[in-house]
Amino acid sequence: MSPIFENALDSLKVGMQFYMSGNQYSTRKHAILTVFHSIELMLKEYLYQVNPILIYRNIDKKITDNSATVGFSEILIRLENLNLGIPEEQAKAIRNLQSKRNRIEHHRYDHEDEDRELISQALKFILYFMEFQLQKLPEGLIEPELLENIRELVTDYNERHGVANHRLETWLKEKWPEWNIEEENTPEEFIGTDTCPQCRHEYLVMEQKDEPYCFWCCRGIPAEYCEICGQTKIEGVPCCEDYEPHLRIVT
């Protein structure tokens, strides 16, 4: 086991200890920070497996123990350049957690119920990435009780995903009665869903009469498009001014 992966695994375990200790402000905040750190290190381990020198920021200078390594954004770019880009569904989980991490580190932590889904998405990515990209079975590296807790969170997320899909399909059928789900994914007239700025899932419909509605949150969301980056955000809340530029992962 490389030191990088060992570090990533330790951050995952510590992050889960924070998460499982309760839904307090401090425990959830540190769970998000530590689980994101685990993901960042696992991505760095992926680079390391390709070639150990790729984890360093400047590979044209002599490498020492004190040489700076690549940050999160640089890791994603290098993986793209190596044709090892992260699939879009997995990339969304990373971007969602990174967005929350950025807010905590650079501004404040908004303690929200939706953080459970955020962590669940991240854990789903970690289990997949460990087994199928890093070729490391979680069963042999994570204690059975902790792994069971992780899998329960992932299962809960998958079930909620199915419920949200059913809600959206029911609404589509009511709005477009002639639509046949077996013939096409969505009605031709439907402009599609956006990322909900509250829960960060792509179940936000902006074309509702009263206000945008999220079929994951199951309620109206005061959302609007950012005039700078075009992403959805909560009305009146700054977007691009306070955070790092939005990452785009090409697969």
From TrEMBL:
- Supply the name of the protein: Uncharacterized protein
The organism named in the record is Dasania phycosphaerae
